[in-house]
Amino acid sequence: MRTANCELRIANCELEMTYGVGNLQKALPTNYEVYRQVVKAYPQRTPLELTLGVNDNSVEKAEPVSK
């Protein structure tokens, strides 16, 4: 029996995050680290504090809000 080494690569993946500010919703590009924070926080609906990038054109960081 032969075994083969398999490697999975994602060549191009764009992540976007939609969040609400008052009655408005904004969708901005983000990175994998922010995506992972959102995924972890979602089941408990933990609020996140977002750090936006230059000219508020991207989400650079997401951290749980401390009480």
What do you see in this structure?
With 67 residues, the protein is mainly beta. It has one helix and four strands. It starts with 14 loop residues before the first strand and ends with a strand. The mean pLDDT is 85.
Offer a quick outline of the entry.
By secondary structure, the chain is mainly beta. It is built from 1 helix and 4 strands, in the order ββαββ.
Annotate the secondary structure layout.
Blueprint: E1 15-21, E2 24-30, H1 32-41, E3 48-52, E4 59-64
Antiparallel strand pairs: 1-2, 3-4
Q: Note the total helix count.
A: 1
Mind telling me the C-alpha Rg?
16 Å
Report how far apart the termini are: 57 Å
Major sheet: 2 strands, antiparallel
Order the strands across the largest sheet as they lie in space: 1-2
Count all strands and give the number.
Answer: 4
Uncertain runs are none
Q: Order of helices and strands, N to C?
A: EEHEE
Tally of separate domains = 1
Query: Which structural class is indicated by helix and strand composition?
Result: mainly beta
Overall morphology = globular
Integer average pLDDT:
85
Helicity, as a percent range:
10-25%
Query: Which range does the strand content fall in?
Result: 35-45%
